[in-house]
Amino acid sequence: MTENTADNTTRTPTATTPEPTARQRLGYVLGRTLPTELHPWVIADTTGPGATRRYATRCLIPLIPILAGLLLIPGPWIIRTGMVLLLFLPFVYFLLALKNIYLRHRLVSHGLDPRLLNATKQRRLDQEQASYESRYRSAP
């Protein structure tokens, strides 16, 4: 029982970040900016774990009714499936190719530093470089 309490205390964050209301979140998804007090949430949304998944989900959900409508057009299944794939595959390709540009725009529109997008990657590269130098570079 003491192990569970120790695990619970290590998992709880020390400072909780405020989350947007449902109305603010809907506005955020539609492209509006959030108030300054929600900037930590915006940073976590655009740079945190699962940011790519959330971005792709937000972009693909509006496409589903269009693709479903194309499947209802009369004709052979191969033609209907081909129409859906001709729209879906390039859409996903460009969606993922333009991910960094869109997320950078999201940060800039909130008045945040766009370099935050690459902060995690840069931190990891710095750690790898420091590890390499400590192992293979001799001290002067």
Descriptive tags:
single chain, about 140 residues, mainly alpha, about 70% helix, flat, disordered N terminus
Layout of helices and strands, plus pairs?
Elements: H1 2-11, H2 22-29, H3 39-47, H4 51-60, H5 63-71, H6 77-97, H7 99-109, H8 119-136
Helix pairs in contact: 3-4, 3-7, 5-6
Number of strands: 0
First CA to last CA: what distance? 52 Å
Question: How many domains is the backbone divided into?
Answer: 2
State the order of secondary-structure elements, H for helix, E for strand: HHHHHHHH
> Whole-number average pLDDT?
85
Could you tell me the strand content as a percent range?
under 5%
Radius of gyration: 22 Å
How does the helix and strand content classify structurally? mainly alpha
User: What spatial form do the alpha-carbon principal axes imply?
Assistant: flat
User: Helical percent range?
Assistant: 55-70%
Helix segment tally: 8
Largest sheet: none
Low-confidence stretches: 1-14
